[in-house]
Specification:
- This protein is of the alpha/beta class.
- It folds into three domains: about 240 residues, HUPs (Rossmann fold), CATH 3.40.50; about 130 residues, no CATH class; about 100 residues, Tyrosyl-Transfer RNA Synthetase (Orthogonal Bundle).
- About 45% of the residues lie in helices and about 10% in strands.
- The chain binds tryptophan (TRP) and iron/sulfur cluster (SF4).
C-alpha cells in the first residue's frame, strides 16, 4: 500500500498495530530508514532493518542462548549480526567478550540501562567485559568540554557499577587514555579511506578531522577485546550504531593476513568469478569427456555456449567472459575442488609458515596455496592460528545485538534534551514517580471504552517501562500487565500508579547502590579527571 491510500485504521482513529509493535503506517514507507550514529535515535520500522540492512532477527538465535536475558525473551533485543559464535562460546564455556561504549554527553538514563544490563549479563556468563567512555567522540562530534565529559563519565560509570559490573574481572577505560586503542585505531585507519567514510557516514569536506579520528577510534574499541587473541565479541548497541558495526566487521577482515576461499583451478579469480567456476564445475556431466576430470578448456567452451549455453547466467554477466578466458588459458588443466589460502598481508615468513602448516597435497603459487586435503571448515581456523602465531591479529568479525529504542514518556522519542521524555538514573525518586504519573499512555478516552476495547499496550510508554525495566526478570508479571491491559481489566490510573511506585523504588535503590560503589570506582583503573584542555 502507498502512503496516500486509505488505511484500515481502527475505529478510534489509531493506527492498527502489528504483533511486533510495528504499525501499518510505518510499513507504508512514510519515511526512509537511515541509520545515523550522530542523528536522532529513532527507528520507524524495525522490520526494515532486516530487509534493508541485513540485520538478523534475534528470535532466530534465541533458542541457542543459554538462559536468555529478559530483554532477549521480550523482543526488546530484536536484532543481531552474527551472534551465534558468542552464544556458542557461552554455552561451551569458551572465551568470549562483550564491549560497549558511552558518549558522556548527559546523564545516564533508563535507555542506557539496557546496555549496562547487557554488558553485565554477558560478564556474568563468563565473557570478558569492557565498558568504555567515548570521550574523544563526545569532544569531537558533540563539542563537549573535558570538564563536562569528566562529570558525565563519572555518572555513567557509577551506574554501570551499581547495576553489577565487576571492575576487577572486566575493564573500564576512556578512549583518550587507552594507548593500545589509539595505536590500533592508527593501524585500522590505513585500511579505510576518506571516500569510504564519506559514503558510510555522509562525511564531506567540512567534516572535522577529529570526528573522523573518533570513527577509527570506535573501530579500535570494537576490536580491542581481541588484542590478546581472537575471540567472539559482542557489541550491544542501538541500531543507530550498525554502520559502525558493519565497518568494524569489514576492517577486521581486511586486517587478516590470509583469506580462505574455495577454488577449482590454479588461476586466481574474484569471488564473482569463483561462483561462475563453481557452477561450471557442478555442470561437468553436461560437457566433459570424462566427468571425473573435467578440463578447463571444456568448461570454457560450455560457458561460451559452444557446447550448450548456461541458462542461469544472464548475457550481461561480466564475470562470464573473464572466467571463460581464464579457463581457456588454463587449457587441459582439470577442474578440481580445493581450498585456497590467499596471501593478503602476510610477509614471507608467515606465508612459509602457512605452507608448512597445511597437511596433505598442496600446490604453492605466487600469492596463494591450494590445499586438496583440508576441510574447508577447518581451513579458516588453520589460517587464523598461523596468523596469530606469526604475530598477526587474526580478528574474528565482531558480532552485535540491537535493542529497541524506548519511547519517550511524553510520546515520540526519548531524548536526553527533553527531561520529561526520559527518566535519568539520577532523577530524584519522587521526580521519577511524577514523570511516570504524567506519562502518556495507550489508554482509551474513557474508562468505559477501555473496559470494552482494552488498552493499547503495544503503543504505551508505560507498558514499555514494565517490559524494559520494572518487571525485571519476572515474565509472568510483564505478561499479566499486558493481558490485563489489552483485556480491558486494567485502567491507566492504577496502572501508572503501580508503575510510578516501582520506578520510585527502583531509583531509590539504584541511587543507594551508586553511593555504595563510589569506592569501587575510585579503586578502578580508569582515569576520572582528564588533564586535557578545551
Ligand atoms: N558511538 C557510540 C555512541 O554514540 C559510543 C561508542 C564508542 C561505542 N565506541 C564504542 C559503542 C564501541 C559501542 C562500541 O554512543
Ligand atoms: Fe498503558 Fe497501563 Fe494504560 Fe495499558 S493500562 S494503556 S499499559 S497505562
Amino acid at each position: 500500500m502507498t502512503a496516500d491510500e486509505p488505511s484500515d485504521d481502527a475505529a478510534d482513529g489509531s493506527t492498527p498495530v502489528r504483533p511486533d509493535g510495528g504499525t501499518t503506517e510505518d510499513a507504508a514507507g512514510a519515511d526512509e530508514v537511515a541509520l545515523d550514529p550522530w542523528g536522532s535515535s529513532t527507528v520507524s520500522d524495525y522490520r526494515k532493518l532486516f530487509s534493508e540492512f541485513g540485520i538478523e532477527a534475534f528470535d532466530e538465535v534465541l533458542s541457542e542462548v543459554p538462559n536468555p536475558h529478559y530483554l532477549m525473551r521480550r523482543g526488546v533485543i530484536f536484532g543481531h549480526r552474527d551472534y551465534r559464535p558468542v552464544a556458542e562460546a557461552m554455552r561451551e564455556g569458551e572465551d568470549a567478550a562483550v564491549l560497549s561504549g558511552f558518549m558522556p554527553t548527559g546523564d545516564p538514563h533508563i535507555g542506557h540501562k539496557l546496555v549496562f544490563d547487557e554488558i553485565i549479563w554477558h560478564q556474568e556468563r563468563g565473557a570478558d567485559a569492557y565498558g568504555l567512555i567515548a570521550d574523544l567522540e563526545a569532544h569531537s562530534a558533540r563539542g563537549l568540554s573535558w570538564d563536562e565529559i569528566d562529570e558525565h563519565a563519572r555518572n555513567y560509570l557509577l551506574s554501570l557499577l551499581a547495576l553489577g559490573f565487576d571492575p576487577e574481572e572486566g575493564e573500564l577505560y576512556r578512549q583518550s587514555t587507552n594507548r593500545a586503542v589509539q595505536d590500533l585505531a592508527f593501524e585500522l585507519g590505513i585500511e579505510a579511506n576518506f571516500s569510504e567514510l564519506g559514503s558510510i557516514y555522509g562525511f564531506d569536506g567540512e567534516t572535522d578531522v577529529s570526528h573522523m579520528q573518533s570513527v577509527v577510534t570506535q573501530m579500535a574499541d570494537i576490536l580491542y577485546p581481541q588484542l590478546d587473541g581472537p575471540k567472539p565479541t559482542v557489541i550491544p548497541v542501538g541500531p543507530d550504531q550498525d554502520p559502525h558495526v558493519r565497518l568494524a566487521r569489514d576492517l577486521a577482515e581486511r586486517m587478516r593476513m590470509f583469506g580462505v576461499t574455495e577454488a577449482y583451478a590454479s588461476f586466481e579469480a574474484t569471488e564473482d568469478e569463483l561462483a561462475v567456476v563453481a557452477d561450471a564445475y557442478d555442470a561437468r556431466e553436461a560437457y566433459a569427456d570424462d566427468p571425473d576430470q573435467p578440463r578447463c578448456v571444456e568448461a570454457a567452451e560450455w560457458l561460451r555456449g559452444e557446447g550448450g549455453a548456461r541458462p542461469d547466467v544472464p548475457d550481461e554477466d561480466v564475470a562470464l567472459e573473464a572466467v571463460a578466458e581464464k579457463l581457456e588459458n588454463a587449457g587441459m588443466e582439470p577442474l578440481r575442488p580445493r581450498t585456497r589460502f590467499v596471501d593478503r598481508r602476510a610477509d614471507d615468513e608467515a606465508f612459509e609458515a602457512l605452507i608448512e602448516a597445511i597437511d596433505g597435497e598442496k600446490r604453492v603459487f605466487e600469492g596463494h596455496v591450494d590445499a586438496f586435503d583440508v576441510d574447508p571448515a577447518e581451513a579458516a581456523e588453520l589460517a587464523r592460528s598461523v596468523e596469530v602465531e606469526a604475530g598477526g591479529y587474526g580478528f574474528l568479525a565482531p558480532s552485535s545485538i540491537y535493542h529497541r529504542f524506548m519511547t519517550g514518556l511524553t510520546g515520540g522519542k526519548m531524548s536526553s534534551s527533553v527531561p520529561a521524555s526520559h527518566i535519568s538514573l539520577l532523577d530524584d525518586p519522587d521526580e521519577g514517580y511524577e514523570k511516570v504519573k504524567s506519562a502518556t499512555t495507550g489508554g482509551r478516552e474513557t474508562a468505559e471504552k477501555q473496559r470494552e476495547l482494552g488498552g493499547k499496550a503495544d503503543e504505551c510508554p508505560v507498558y514499555e517501562l514494565y517490559a524494559y525495566l520494572l518487571a525485571g526478570d519476572d515474565d509472568e508479571f510483564a505478561t499479566l500487565v499486558y493481558e490485563e491491559c489489552v483485556g480491558g481489566e486494567r485502567l491507566c490510573g492504577n496502572c501508572k500508579e503501580q508503575a510510578a511506585e516501582l520506578m520510585r523504588e527502583f531509583l531509590a535503590d539504584h541511587q543507594e547502590k551508586r553511593a555504595e560503589v563510589e569506592e569501587l570506582l575510585e579503586a578502578a583503573e580508569i582515569e576520572l579527571e582528564s588533564p586535557r584542555r578545551g
